[in-house]
Amino acid sequence: MCHVIVTCRSMLWTLLSIVVAFAELIAFMSADWLVGKAKPSSSEDVDNRTGGSQEPYHPTLGIYGRCTRISHMQLSRRDTLCGPYAENFNEIASGFWQATAIFLAVGIMILCAVAFVSVFTMCVQSIMKKSIFNVCGLLQGIAGM
User: Which keywords does UniProt give here (predicted)?
Assistant: First the structure.
């Protein structure tokens, strides 16, 4: 009975470790860190199919990505273009954002390594009399700082 509980907890921990690693990666890649004020719609922003105005445009900025409006594509419902604004590390918006990129990248690498190792903890639970769960939990705590 105890072995079944330990196995279920390790499977849950493994699943949550993988989910958190992917969530952090998605947050890092997101362009929605700063969302600007809605731009007022003009007469050009009228949706030809419904006659009403389209949703207001909100410019966004992420660590290295942004979303901007494409002015010459008025007939398309997808009139924003999202992608990287920084071609290299020095083009990231500010020193604080560069530090954020470094710390997040290191944290994500640690979380991905723990998620990878956590898959193997269902078969092997200790190495050299050290619990893999304790070591991985410590690494997850460090990655979350």
Answer: Membrane, Transmembrane, Transmembrane helix
